[in-house]
Amino acid sequence: MNSEFDSYRLSDEHEALREAVRDLATKEIAPHAADVDEEGRYPTEARDALTRAGFHAVIIPEEYGGQGADELAGCIVIEEVARACASSSLIPAVNGLGMTPILLSASDDVKKQVLPSIASGEAMISYGLSEREAGSDAAAMKTRARRDGDDWIIDGTKCWITNAGESSWYTVMAVTDPEKKANGISAFVVHSDDPGFSVGPKERKLGIKGSPTREIYFEGCRIPGDRIIGAEGTGFKTALRTLDHTRPTIGAQAIGIAQGALDVAIDYVKERKQFGTRLADFQGLQFMIADMAMKVEAARQLVYVAASRAERGESDLGFISSAAKTMASDTAMAVTTDAVQLLGGAGYTRDFPVERMMRDAKITQIYEGTNQIQRMVMARNLLR
Ligand code: COS
């Protein structure tokens, strides 16, 4: 066989990255995961460890002070952190989501204003698309941006903003021309120090309790004219193109959570004895474990393919990125639920991490577009 053909596998660099992140997550993130969840506190240990190692935002190009890693590498980082602590995995995931509109559509000047501060770890960035009355129907947003001399003035409220209050930068979609509906929406970058910007109280959530979710408020918020991302009226397309790239990263988070739960379940059934034998020797439970691992591996492959196709800049990502996110998040919910089942009463208590993983998994079926919206996107792509 001609050796120029590389067989179907991750590169040595991707494998080395996985090993390095897994090592860091095991030593520096996992020990705090239960406490972060219990207290609903921001995972500062994870933030510091990820930033020190440069794993908090690996996809920033080298020319802006980053490492220039590809989108598959970005997914591997998120997956491995999520295996230990889903809340902590939102540090690289949300940095990726917040900066992707900038990477895709912003001028070099905006990139220079924002990206180096994220690359250095001095700042983080969140993404502001949703509103209370514009969730799945994102184009129904009401937040307005108007020109005032050289500046833009933004008014409105965005909600469900992950890591709001921790981030310094926010990419924000706002209506600049209400007549034009989706094509009258523009994207901006707002800094937390901009006058008229503030954040609301933390939402009280089922899971990912270490990652603050808040509303963000714009009251006559004034930003310089050059902080628009791309041309006026292109913001909604940028927002949807962004999700084409970042939905696989939520898939990566989901398979990380699922793998974490599977690992705990495997250890448990090998140790625990009932009826004088290990749980691992009961065929009914063996079949459960086999199915769980099979689903995780299938979802992982779909996520890696979606991320690789996004990295190659393929234009038609709608189907594959929605498929990857949906398959992986449905898998995470099923696998974490089965992990709780395998641990029985113990799995239902906070003495083991699987109940946390089951709660954390749920959000992956909801955010970055519910799985019903993903199926709509897939069907539109298949049937157009
Ligand atoms: N990339 C670039 N442009 C896209 C696109 C994509 N993936 N998908 C659609 N567009 C374009 C369309 O071509 C259309 O442009 P034209 O009018 O010039 O043809 C425009 O964007 C609007 O598209 P569409 O009419 O399909 O928009 P809808 O209002 O019907 O909404 C869905 C489309 C439902 C797919 C979108 O609102 C969505 O993804 N909702 C979920 C939002 C979400 O994920 N929220 C989570 C927030 S992030 S945590």
From TrEMBL:
Residues 11-122 form the Acyl-CoA dehydrogenase/oxidase N-terminal domain. It catalyses: a 2,3-saturated acyl-CoA + A = a 2,3-dehydroacyl-CoA + AH2. The keyword Flavoprotein applies. Residues 233-383 form the Acyl-CoA dehydrogenase/oxidase C-terminal domain. One of its GO terms (molecular function) is acyl-CoA dehydrogenase activity. InterPro entries: Acyl-CoA_DH_CS (IPR006089), Acyl-CoA_Oxase/DH_mid-dom (IPR006091), Acyl-CoA_Oxase/DH_mid-dom_sf (IPR046373), AcylCo_DH-like_C (IPR036250), AcylCo_DH/oxidase_C (IPR009075), AcylCoA_DH/ox_N (IPR013786), AcylCoA_DH/ox_N_sf (IPR037069), AcylCoA_DH/oxidase_NM_dom_sf (IPR009100). Keywords: FAD, Flavoprotein, Oxidoreductase. The keyword Transmembrane does not apply. Its cofactor is FAD. Residues 127-221 form the Acyl-CoA oxidase/dehydrogenase middle domain. It holds the Pfam family Acyl-CoA_dh_M. Belongs to the acyl-CoA dehydrogenase family. This is Probable acyl-CoA dehydrogenase fadE25.
